[in-house]
Write a structure and sequence with these properties.
- This protein is an alpha/beta fold.
- Strands 1, 2, 3, 4, 5, 6, 7, 8 and 9 form a 9-stranded mixed β-sheet that branches.
- Helix 8 links the parallel strand 5 and strand 6.
- Helix 3 runs antiparallel to helix 12.
- The longest helix is centred in the last third of the chain and has 21 residues.
- It starts with a helix and ends with a helix.
- The structure holds D-malate.
- The site of D-malate has 14 residues, from helix 3, helix 8 and helix 9.
- The site of D-malate (MLT) has 14 residues, from helix 3, helix 8 and helix 9.
Length: 320
Amino acid sequence: MKTILMAALAAGSMAMSAPAFAQEDYPSRPITILVPAAAGGPSDTVARLVAEAMRADLGQQVLIENAGGAGGSLGSGRVAAAEPDGYTLLLYHIGVSTFEALYPDLAYKPAEAFDSVGLVTEVPMTVVGRKDLPPEDMKGLLEYLKGEGAGATFGTAGVGAVSDLCGRLLVEATGVQLTVVPYKGTGPAMTDLVGGQIDLMCDQTTNTVNQIKGDEIKPYAVTTKERIPVLLDVPTISESGVKDFEITAWHAIWAPKGTPEPIRQKLSAALQKALTSQTVIERFASLGTVPVPAELATPAALDKRFQSEIERWGKLLAAN
Ligand code: MLT
């Protein structure tokens, strides 16, 4: 009886997290990073750049899998339920810190379901309109949305997505009326904005800079306190009269809860190296963002940021 029990216990702990010998030769097969938003969108763009740069240091392929929907809470749930062995990771953003407040019946608690690997980048956002939307500037847009344009269609990636959070803050700060149109990501929403099927979005520069520079959409404002180098002629929302308005899409990598510390440290080291690669630095800059400094691409720094954001958004969303 005792030997059967010992064997069962051993098997149990084997299943729980990667046994010591597996940690030593980690990674011994390709790693998958799940992005809970549609391919071709801003989070996907960040993930593919970082994954390609991490591959060199890890000596294994780092594959991207997209699973959009419900603001990213569905795909994030798949990582929460995955084996904590370092082979399934989540790359997403600020949205994860709002899921508990916005989805009370969620099958997992983000604060308890993930272990941190590190922060990646903090992407500014832009308020953009379809090319032929009448207002020429942010002031005009706010008046328009309180008048003949009230109820204008506003594309988001679903409840809890950062494109949704930006919309919520804008409505809260200005009292404008928007008609939210959810997509599986802002990649497909951008296609409809360029096509004139929707009126407005608030989206990350990683998904808007090229369309703005290509004169396919109309930029109204950036959501950072200061103007950003790649869009210097686009004013901040604060400059347009909405004082102290700020939201950025901080992105990070998480692992399922129980993923061994040594594996997460190895991933963090590869992430830090990737964020210093010339390709990543240049591509990020051309898309309006920068990698975080190495000390933020760590489990400890993400733990701290994630906890503070869960508290901040918990209060903000409870008040709305
Ligand atoms: C995306 O990649 O589609 C975005 O990050 C979604 C969002 O707006 O949060």
